[in-house]
Amino acid sequence: MASSDQTRLLLVEDVPQVAQYIRGLLNSQSTVKLLDVLEDGAKVVAQAQQLRPDVILVDALLQGRVKGPQLVEQLRASGLRVPVIVLTVPQNPVEADPDRGIHGVLAMPFSGFDLMNRIATARKEFATISTTGASRIFSVFAPKGGVGKTTLAFNLAVAIGQLDQRTVLIDGSLQFGDLRALLKVPVDAPSILDLPTDRVAESDLQDVLWRDPSGIDILLAPPRVEMAEMITTRDVDKVLSLLRRVYGAIVIDMSSVLNDINLAFLDLSDTIIEIVTYDSTTIHNTVAVADAFRMIGYPASKVRYLVNRADSSGGIDPTDLERAIGRVPEHKVVSDGILVVQSNNEGVPFVLANPAAAISQDVARVAQEVLAVHGLRPVPVAARR
Ligand SMILES: Nc1ncnc2c1ncn2[C@@H]1O[C@H](COP(=O)(O)OP(=O)(O)OP(=O)(O)O)[C@@H](O)[C@H]1O
Ligand SMILES: [Mg+2]
Predict the structure, then answer these.
(1) Angle at 360 between CA 131 and CA 133, to 5 degrees
(2) Higher pLDDT residue, 302 or 376?
(3) What is the mean pLDDT of residues 182-187?
(4) What is the DSSP string of 229-278?
(5) What angle do CA 348, 349, 352 make, to 5 degrees?
(6) What is the residue with the minimal CA distance to atom 3 of ligand 1?
(7) Which atom, in ligand 1's list, is nearest to the CA of 152?
(8) Beta strand 217-219 with 167-172: parallel, antiparallel or unpaired?
């Protein structure tokens, strides 16, 4: 496990002597871990998505297809949300400007002390910027199984991540670990159970989260059914408060029961995205859950209904659903059997595999709308109905 304040650094440097000098400075200490040295600017965004560094150091004079300043801009626009320090020479002055993705500048020559100091400051300042922004918890719930919770939670999390929110997806389906199956994660991949039970620190997350190639981080469920019982409601509280400090958006894929664990997830959610479909059992259960939520004291606005497979009414009049829930559902997502099955089989989100498909556009719109509810991002005019 990483020590609590270890910083994971990615260096982008095409001058071997400079890379070697920095390696040398970092060799004698353990607070900064050098993950890799990349020479080709064109590969950095993809590599950073895989490696998930805490800080990236970029040579302003980087040559090649993607030059230094261009790379800094690419990293800013990538939604990775990693502080970038630009390495330069006095003849090429660069100014720190977080709005342009430059969170620190280091001019040569510099000492080991300067390097460590700049890295620590950039990371700390960036964390402050990130956490002063509001963090929101969205649980994807349904009172009936098999209605698309896992599929939609995964794609919604990726779509929210695309909107520049640092996003984590929690596999709250603790017994069966639906996301493990969907993403074909190895059995020994760490899970929520691997988080220390006391004094959980931000750095512990590094060892426990699954870095999905889709760009989001995932907190997996335990690998075996019986292990779900080891998670307590206190663990849920701790995990969510920790994730809130690091992520702009937390999406939870839930199971279909109202037990203590699920109520802990729901209590702490800012918005419950409740999936409904046009079938009579779902409608019946949705009404029962609405009663339960009312008794618990959740305001009606905490729930937003999402009709999944909204284009296949299965013989049910959509107004029956509206009458039952007492309002028009806030969101609709169409069916797309071929794309959903194909993407789920490959463990990739359809919002990335085929962003132009109607189902992907629907999910992207849900992402914009749920963020807009919390003032996190205005809904673009084109997305309004
Ligand atoms: N909009 C959609 N279009 C086509 N197929 C869909 C759609 N949404 C979900 N599905 C399919 O429905 C099935 C169930 O989806 P999923 O596993 O996401 O549901 P769930 O609610 O998480 O189930 P569980 O209750 O078992 O956790 C999957 O086979 C998925 O491919
Ligand atoms: Mg599921």
Answers:
(1) 10
(2) 302
(3) 89
(4) GG--HHHHHHHHHHHHHH-SEEEEEE-S---HHHHHHHHH-SEEEEEE-S
(5) 105
(6) 335
(7) 18
(8) parallel
- Band of pLDDT at residue 195, cut at 50, 70 and 90: confident
Query: Residue 114 has which token pair?
Result: 């300067």
Cβ neighbours for 82, distance < 8 A, ≥ 6 positions apart? 48, 53, 54, 55, 56, 75, 126
Cα 368 to averaged position of ligand 1 atoms, centre (Å): 22
Ligand nearest to the CA of 336: 1
Residue of the CA atom closest to atom 5 of ligand 1:
337
Cis check: omega of the bond before 109, within 30 degrees of 0: yes
Quote the pTM value.
0.69
The CA 5 to ligand 2 mean position distance, Å, reads 35
Q: How far is the CA of 148 from the centre of ligand 2 (A)?
A: 7
Q: Helix 318-325 and helix 280-296: axis angle, to 10°?
A: 20
The bound ligand whose nearest atom lies closest to the alpha carbon of 277 is: 1
**In the block, residue with structure tokens 């695309």:** 162
The rounded Å distance from CA 178 to ligand 2 centre is 5
Q: Answer for the pair 240, 270: CB distance below 8 angstroms, yes or no.
A: no
